[in-house]
Amino acid sequence: FSTVSATFMVIVARTLDLMAHWNLYFWSCLVITFVVTAISTYLPPISKASKAYYNNQQPPIKPKEEGTRIQQAWLAVKRQSHQATPLFKNMWTHFAEGLEMTVAILPSILSIGFIGLLLANFTPVIDILSYIFYPFIYIFPIAEKA
Question: Contact, 27 vs 15, CB < 8 A?
């Protein structure tokens, strides 16, 4: 689950008039996602993936840590906080990288959308492709909203 998934879920919920049932919709999607992920790890090809390390390297040896899990977690947090970059430097780096990624990806997204718009408005491609759905509409009729 990510912020992109949640915003896309809002778009789908508004399109299907599910916003009145948002809580049920969101949590059921979340649970279904985790259940499907848990099940798919036991299915091939994921379950058949090799457990061997690359070039027959040995796995790293984990030191035995003492104390409860909460104490271990607290020590790990303290270690990580001392190694972390300063907050504002980290924020600036992520902002710059996000801007760079946006500049790199946005032209592709806009060009694909523009090509789709041209195909939908000035060619019969969408009309021809829509014939695929006629059997489904015949079997499962729905009232037209338009």
Answer: no
Query: If you search the block for the tokens 């059921």, which residue do you land on?
Result: 28
Between the CA atoms of 113, 114, 117 and 119, what dihedral angle is there, to the nearest 10 degrees? -110
Question: 66-122: per-residue pLDDT in tens?
Answer: 899 999 999 999 999 999 999 999 999 999 999 999 999 999 999 999 999 999 999
Q: Which amino acid is at 109?
A: I
Q: Residue 25: CA atoms inside 13 Å, Cβ hemisphere, count?
A: 17
For residue 54, give the amino acid letter: Y
Burial pattern 35-57, b for ≥16 Cβ within 10 A else e, equals: eeeeeeeeeeeeeeeeeeeeeee
pTM of the model: 0.44
> Dihedral through CA 33, CA 37, CA 39, CA 44, nearest 10?
140
In angstroms, the CA 146 to CA 125 distance is 21
Write the single-letter amino acid at 139: I
Whole-angstrom distance, CA of residue 12 vs CA of residue 6:
10
Cα–Cα distance for residue pair 94/73, rounded to 1 Å: 26
65 Ramachandran zone, left/alpha/beta (phi>0; psi -120 to 50): beta
